[in-house]
């Protein structure tokens, strides 16, 4: 797998002893030098980028703010809302789905 090229660039990274030992051990098991092992990983490992959840989170915060304003008016007696349990349940479900998306995703390390 060795390519005929001049390697004249250096990359320095900081690792714990345990991290370095683990990488060195894996390189040895793969029968590659540390350099070849890291290069193979960098070429062959797909990088999955998570979707941008910023707009969804922003909208969720707006909905939460609106719910707080409604609750404040209801609690002060200015307004009456028969039941917000369904709205709150929907809000919780959205939060739970977002949490599951981030916790169970392929990009999670």
Q: What fraction of residues sit in β-strands?
A: under 5%
Q: What is the radius of gyration? A: 26 Å
Please state the structural category.
mainly alpha
Q: How many strands? A: 0
N- and C-termini, Cα separation: 28 Å
* Main beta sheet: none
Low-pLDDT parts are none
The 3D shape can be described as rod-shaped
Q: Percent of residues in helical segments?
A: 55-70%
Number of domains: 2
| SSE topology string | HHHH
Annotation field: number of helices: 4
Summed over residues and divided by their number, the pLDDT gives a mean of 82
Description:
Helices cover 61% and strands 0% of the residues. Helix 1 packs across helix 2 and helix 3 runs antiparallel to helix 4 (85-103). The radius of gyration is 26 Å and the shape is rod-shaped. The model has no long low-confidence stretch (mean pLDDT 82). It has helices spanning 17-29, 34-44, 54-76, 85-103. The protein has 2 domains: 1-45; 54-103. The two termini are 28 Å apart. The chain has 4 helices and no strands. The protein is mainly alpha-helical and 109 residues long.
